[in-house]
Amino acid sequence: RGDLMAARIALRKGSTTLRATGHSFGIALSFDHFARLAKAGSVYDRAARLAGFAQASFERGVSRPATEQTLFDELTGELRRELGNAAYAREWNRGQWMTLEDAFSEAQAV
User: Fold this and answer.
1) Which of 7, 44, 47, 76 is 20–30 Å from 88 (CA)?
2) pLDDT-derived band at 15, boundaries 50, 70, 90
3) Which residues contact 46 (CB under 8 A, 6 or more apart)?
């Protein structure tokens, strides 16, 4: 549990810096990690929304590295199993349509 807290703090600090500098790749990747943290905390609906936003961010121009894509695919498969197809799709779609501001607010709640 202590490791999750340290990861949460580091990720929040890093994402704030990335946001301030407008680093598109880093911002998108940070949402992958926020989704993993939410899943680790068993907040599966939030994890699916954050994963949906991360995917939408990568689709807007930057590419997710192959190793990260593999990890992301594993994450989304686990979330789909936890939530069920309908709930997963609903939350994923909500994430796809979030604004950056909404996504950062969602991430800060992780």
Assistant:
1) 7
2) confident
3) 38, 91, 106, 109, 110
Residue 18 and residue 28: Cα distance in Å, rounded?
10
Helix (H, G, I), strand (E, B) or coil at 32: helix
pLDDT at 2: 58
Residue 102: partners with Cβ closer than 8 Å, 6 or more residues away: none
**In one letter, which amino acid is 19?**
R
Instruction: Please report the DSSP string for 49-62 in residue order.
Output: HHHHHHHHHHHTT-
Q: Is 41 exposed, middle or buried (0-12, 13-18, 19+ CB in 10 A)?
A: middle
DSSP state of 102: H
For the chain, the average pLDDT equals 89
Going from the C-alpha of 44 to that of each of 38, 56, 67, 91, the distances in angstroms are 7, 18, 22, 9
